[in-house]
Structure formats: structure tokens, C-alpha cells
Amino acid sequence: MEIAEISSKVHNEARQGEVLAPAIQEEKLYRKKFMIESYGCAMNFADSEIVASILNKEGYGATKILEEADIVLLNTCSIREKAEQTIRKRLTEFKKAKLAKRSMLVGVLGCMAERLKGKLLEEEKLVDLVIGPDAYRTLPLLIEEAETGQKAVNVLLSRDETYADIAPVRLDSNGITAFVSIMRGCNNMCSFCVVPFTRGRERSRDAASIVHECTELFNQGYREVTLLGQNVDSYFWTALSNEPAADKLSEVTFAGLLEKVALISPLLRVRFSTSHPKDITDEVLFTMARYENICKYIHLPVQSGSTRVLQLMNRTYTREWYMAKVNRIREILPDCSISSDVIAGFCTETEEDHQDTLSILQFSGYDMSYMFFYSERPGTLAARRYLDDVPLDVKKRRLDEIVKLQNRLSMESNIRDIGRTFKVLIEGNSRKSESDWSGRSSQNKVVVFPKNDRPLTKGNYVTVKVKKVTGATLIGEITSVVEESI
Ligand code: SAH
Ligand code: SF4
Ligand code: F3S
User: How many domains, the chain?
Assistant: First the structure.
């Protein structure tokens, strides 16, 4: 197994290509059709919704049917070699469609476009457009250019683009949960990571535009927003204050933003991802404790349990520092779940380092983790400075041990929930049966329970008592309906 995911609701990483199209679309309004497939993290999925909005304005409607599309877009990920291979394979599958419809344009968006730039055009002959994550506003112009038979490239990174004014077109939405991008880029230079190169400098989005977008979502019936950024805890926005007599600038930290969004309505749940352990503050933890509707769930990627490896990774914390952070979360938020990202077999990793990783998983008792073996990315600090010297079979064996341990920890965490009652936001039918609802607890665990002919609908809150569990799901029965939610 190369990538293991112990979660059914992937929010962070490694989503395979999904074709996205809006649930409802007035077909006749659009003169042309585009198809967009998204890979990688939630940021990319959120970006695809911005791209859809830009294209809608130009008269393009979304389709899921390749043959119908005038333009096919792949929103790509470069995080590991495997992610790029998947996309290259997918590109070759477009050859036939393009032969059948010569006017069809193929565009590569996102991180792979940014990493490879014009080289992609040489390597993948059928690609007509290459557009980096900060250049989506120029997409209509680039399409026009490509329609004349020229290849079109824009991979300029920006210091201030946040697409704050663009209302995303929700693609394939359940109408209840939505991603809201609050910042872009990353200033951390984790030595293994390609993101700072593909996404550019960190910049925060105007707080007022975020609150506005979340309020609109709530008014449309959405009941959960996930605030997205590579490192949400370093969110920082300075704005002119509207308060009378205040001539100072008002500053919004991440804790301040969380509070503003939580105050929209107690019926709107707030989640966020991702927190870098070095940046999550007590202020954020206390804000989470103060508001019932801020979900008690923190994704706190550890990457490795060995201080020596963490130093090589440039994570800027030690094993002990990370463990103290976990303790602090448990102290302030006793019912908070914690998940992690883990990399097996980073450069120079010894068996002892690997044991340190296993023991930190055990110490933290993660409810869930995303686990990977190290994949060298060209241009990163690690690729330039260190030898990728752990053999593949060793990486895979260590990853396997990590996965096995995490599976056990997830199961143990779920078993502890048997007999407990959780407030659940109903997101839709369970995947297995239309007579069951599926939703999530504040702790981000999937909860499935029978409908039992109650007049409920998605978007309602219920309390559910857990009767039994699997490794990834809690199964229970409704004990009450949260009246104000219906
Ligand atoms: N910004 C987030 C992570 C984004 S990338 C954070 O800092 O937490 C998601 C995860 O992919 C990382 O946490 C890491 O575990 C993994 N990852 C990143 N680069 C990788 C590489 N070169 N090889 C293997 N896994 C990698
Ligand atoms: Fe990559 Fe580190 Fe930035 Fe996360 S914080 S995106 S791992 S450089
Ligand atoms: Fe996300 Fe992949 Fe880019 S994880 S930021 S889409 S490299």
C-alpha cells in the first residue's frame, strides 16, 4: 500500500481525480462546456470552484461527460511522484477524445502546471494550456489564445492574489458542507515539500470577504464550513476598522477569524485545516473551547517522531515540543480528536528514528492519520541537500508498520466511543443504504444511523448514541433531534 487513508471524508490530501460539476445547472445558458477534474488537497478542490465561477461568467457550463466538453481541465497535484504519474496517465486517456473532437482544448492547472511550466507542453503534446494557481483570472484570455492554435501558458505567482472577490460555484456539493479558502501559499520551508514552490508566498484573504462567503453559504442552507490554508494558524489580516472613533487598523488573527465565523450562527459548524504544530496558539484552543460550533478536531501533522529527522525536515519543533502541544490540546479541549500526517523513510531515517515515529503515534493516540513514504521532489531543499538513501522496500515496510499501528489506534478510539452520545450533522444518505443517514460528529468521525421514518433531512442536527463501530465508522441510533435545526 502506498497511500493509506483511514478516513472516508478526505479533506487534506491525496484525493484521486474527481470530476466535478454543479448539482444544478441551467444548461441552456451556456454556449460551451468545460470538464474539470481535481487531484490533491482540498485547496485544489476549492480552486476548481473558483475556476468554475470564472468560466461560468464567460459562458462556459460544467459537464461530467468528456465527449461533451469543449475544454478539459485537470487541476493537478505535485506533492509526491505518484500524484504526478496518475495525472500523466490520465492525460494519455484524453488522446482518443481529442482525436474525435479536434477543437477540444486540454488544460493543466494547479501545482504540476506551476512546477513544470512550459516543459509540460514539450512532455505532453496534447496539452494546450498550462496555468498556475495564481493565474486563473487569465483563463478566459488564455483559452481565446489557445483557440487560435497557439499554446498558452501563465504560471506567474502573485504576492497578493486570493480570489477574495470571486464567489465559488459549488461543484458536486451536498449542499451542507463547503470549503472556504482563507489563505494561499506557504512560507514554511519543510525540506521535503514542493508546496512553497508551486503555491508561492503565503498571503491571507480579507477577513470580511471570508465572513461574507460563510454567511452566504449559511443563508443558502449550508451548515458546515471548513476554513482552508496550508498553515491556517498564521492567518493574519489587517484592515481599516469600521468602529466609530477608531482610527487604528484592526488586526484579525486566526483565532479572531474563527470567532467571527463561529458567530454567524450557532447552527453553522466551523472546521479548519491545516495547523502547523509550531503555530497553533492557546488563543486558538481557548476560542475552540468557547464556541460549541467550532468542531473539536485538529489536524496536527507530526511527519516524524525523531527530533533529528524533524530537524532535517525543517519542521522547527522537537519531539518533546510536539508532545507538549498534544498535552496542551488535551488539557484545554479534553474531547478534541487529533489526526496527523506521517512520512516514512525520510533521508537518513534509521530504525531508531522509525521507532520514535511509532512511539509518537502511540503517545498522541491519533484518531486518524494520512501516511506516506517519502518521495523526493525535484528542487526542494531535501533533494538538493540530502541523499534519498532509505531503500524503497524499507520505506514500504516502515510505512506498513505505521499504517498497522494507526489502524489499531483508530479502532481503539472508535471502541472508546461505544455507549457515548454525539451531536451529528446529517450530510446525506449513508453510502451503503438509503434507509440510513450519514453525518459526522464534531470530532470528524463518520456516524451512520437508521432514519426510522423520522421527518428529518440533511442539514439537521441530531444526537446519536453509538452502538457499534468499524475502523472508520461509528454506527448508532438517534436519541434526540436538535429542535432549532429543523
Ligand atoms: N500544509 C500541510 C501539509 C500539506 S502536504 C502541513 O504542513 O501540515 C500534505 C502532506 O503530504 C504533508 O503533511 C506530508 O505528510 C506529505 N508530504 C509532503 N511532501 C511529501 C513528500 N515529498 N513525500 C511524501 N509525503 C509528502
Ligand atoms: Fe509543505 Fe511544510 Fe508548507 Fe505544509 S507547512 S505546505 S508541509 S512547506
Ligand atoms: Fe495541494 Fe498537491 Fe498542490 S497537496 S497544494 S495540490 S502539491
Answer: 4
CATH number at residue 248: 3.30.750.210
* Residue 294: partners with Cβ closer than 8 Å, 6 or more residues away: 258, 262, 269, 270, 287, 288
pLDDT in tens, 273-326: 999 999 999 999 999 999 999 999 999 999 999 999 999 999 999 999 999 999
| Cα 92 versus chain centre, distance | 27
pLDDT < 70 positions in the chain: 1-18, 20-29, 240-248
Domain harbouring 435, CATH code: 2.40.50.140
Q: Give the structural domain span for 246.
A: 174-295
Q: How far is the CA of 68 from the centre of ligand 2 (A)?
A: 38
Kindly identify the ligand whose nearest atom is closest to the C-alpha of 371.
Answer: 1
Condensed to tens digits (0 to 9), the pLDDT of residues 447-473 reads 999 999 899 999 999 999 999 999 899
Residue to substitute in 85, 303, 341 for testing ligand 1 pocket (most ligand atoms within 8 angstroms of CB): 341
Residue 41 lies in a domain: yes
3-state secondary structure of 44: helix
Name the residue among 38, 19, 82 with its Cα closest to residue 377.
82
Domain CATH number, residue 324 = 3.30.750.200
